[in-house]
Amino acid sequence: MNARNAFYAQSGGVTAVINASACGVIESTRAHPDRIGRTFAGRNGIVGALTEDLIDTSLESASDIAALRYAPAGAFGSCRYKLKSLEQSRAEYQRLLEVFKAHDIGYFFYNGGGDSADTCLKVSQLSAATGYPLQAIHVPKTVDNDLPITDCCPGFGSVAKYVATSMKEAGFDVASMARTSTKVFVLEVMGRHAGWITASCGLAAEQAGDPPHILLFPEVPFDEDKFIARVRQCVADYGYCCIGVSEGLLDKDGKLMGESGARDAFGHTQLSGVGPMIAGIVTDRLKLKNHWAVASYLQRAARHIASRTDVEQAYALGKAAVEMALDGKNSVMPAIVRKSDSPYVWEIGIAELKDVANVEKKMPKEFISADGFGITDACRAYLAPLIAGEDYPPFRNGLPNYVRLKNIAVARKLPGDFKL
Amino acid sequence: MNARNAFYAQSGGVTAVINASACGVIESTRAHPDRIGRTFAGRNGIVGALTEDLIDTSLESASDIAALRYAPAGAFGSCRYKLKSLEQSRAEYQRLLEVFKAHDIGYFFYNGGGDSADTCLKVSQLSAATGYPLQAIHVPKTVDNDLPITDCCPGFGSVAKYVATSMKEAGFDVASMARTSTKVFVLEVMGRHAGWITASCGLAAEQAGDPPHILLFPEVPFDEDKFIARVRQCVADYGYCCIGVSEGLLDKDGKLMGESGARDAFGHTQLSGVGPMIAGIVTDRLKLKNHWAVASYLQRAARHIASRTDVEQAYALGKAAVEMALDGKNSVMPAIVRKSDSPYVWEIGIAELKDVANVEKKMPKEFISADGFGITDACRAYLAPLIAGEDYPPFRNGLPNYVRLKNIAVARKLPGDFKL
After folding, report:
1. What ipTM describes this predicted complex?
2. In this predicted structure, what is the pLDDT of residue A184?
3. pTM of the entire structure?
4. Fewer CB within 10 Å, N or C, chain B?
5. B73 with A173: Cβ contact below 8 A
6. Residue of A nearest to B204 (CA)
7. DSSP symbols for A290-358
């Protein structure tokens, strides 16, 4: 049997550990030269496949590929570019097939979230529809932790560790200054539709009265009077109040509090400004000195404080994707299966892409406390193992030393350009 | 000779390493029981002295005091509370003397920035003015790095490491997404009047074209057209543009861009919102997708990514303050003296408080590049050693394990309360 080539691409918002999955994929394809030839990466994700801008990862040293485990963001470039249905995007799927044929690609590994799983599903159907032999495997990734079936999503655990650590540190800061200075602190975090990241801020609280004192979830419409009453009570009880708020917080009418009107390539609203808005409400209603922080990309890029559990799972899922391909699978996604919370035991399972694509996993209602401002013990039991362990990158000159790949392009074989 | 007691207090905005200085002070006073009795800490800084709310640090275990080296923020509480001149605040200085006499305090260690150095100077003059034997030593601390004489200020190096690491990580993120998504990223950092922290973002750039591409210093009035032209050029050249901006950025008329109208206890303007404002200008003028982050307290509380150099200097300065007191000194401050940049060699020197109080060290003009948007090699040579080395705190359950002291109050000896 001919050793056919593999294609790997990163899709959607990048994370602190998506390159660990890339490392798992590439190290595993390299381990099977009898079955898999070269592994090409799409420069800037699927855009690289469409434009025949492929990176030859076989030209990277083993040590540089190994170093991907420690580097945040997308080493080959990612993209926000959604393929529509086979009917609507016929030219694009046709183009993908041409590129795959030209470069003898038999394995398609797509590393992304829910939208990307949908793309991967459609690619997985190309084989049956066209007769071209191709196996498409999705490698899960999303800081939003909103993919179904898998117990958690690589990228999330590290964001969770970052926001919990940041909240804990800022909480110590505010507590020590509150007597004469800032009494209210607001940290705005990511999580468009599900409160997983907001909930993770809650891990900072280890005993009663610890910050954060209030969490504002996208699942709980904002009630200003109730919120202000709680802030006032916290300041009375503890001398200060720390708040974690989701970028996706909704008002009573279901409208985004941080609505800016901008939209991204998928048509998602581009959010910003809920943190300062909440701080402004505190200023106006309570006249309390406050500060706010917006973590933005810092939270999802913070490889320096990544969760070891997250890194290990990201790598394992990349490796498992290759093993599934070698096992003849198509249209599937390796998934994390939790066997127990404490001690935390997990293993790799398998999900059908048709069950994953475009399904958004919400946070269970029972993870949010009855008053809507905190997390329950069940939530804590779920989240705690995901931030466990440290996995520091190497440092040089006081800064993390993140690998930069050579990213050498594969010679083009097709005539003409493809217009995106 | 009677072993008289010591008083230690933390003042002003806290840092990732002010507790390392506390550790240096307390471990050093404990090492000299023949000369120094108990060490009392002011609960919430000088406010604790005024209200006779003293913490008996002798009741803390040696391991808990040692653990202060790894804990951010102010373990005894800090404050923003400025004593005025001896004439204007006569009642307060009188009260301090009464509390010192009541508790046989002969050593006053004050851990703060420029405003606090002024308070310490005045306390140091109480002895001559009243005949009460008292030695006042200032321990430098400020993330703003704006104290004179000392080569750098404890707290700054760790913020510098945090912002440089964060800029580097966010830069990797944006670079990998820019083809189809965010093209401009703005990180707002602290530094009210001096651009030291803004400059530190520049350490993230290790080779030409690396982010950050633009720094907006408080020393360089904002020129919107010039800025927009530079952003456009960066996006053309690199595909994206990362910007570090100081909270203290001024417009052409010398007005704070982020002016909010609020003021802190010292009368300083409470700043916020320069980051989103700059991002808004990019949106309006260039229609480029952008994101912004405001690090706020996260940057000065981030003990998890503290600079080892900074931690070591913070500890050494606390220790040196005690040694100076034992040496009979009054009205002085131990200072960092740089002997060479590379290899980095430093030692402890001594500064007279009269030369420190109320003097703000600006960043040298030659540290800012000719175009006003970057740092020079001289600046880099100055900054680089200050972020060198890691000094991770212990972790437990995935989070930094920061010590919480018992902070047991000393029994009061004075009748009545003191009204602040």
Report:
1. 0.96
2. 98
3. 0.96
4. N
5. yes
6. A399
7. EEEEE-THHHHH-GGG-BHHHHHHHHHHHHHHHHHHHTT--SEEEEEEEEETTTTEEEEEEEEHHHHTT
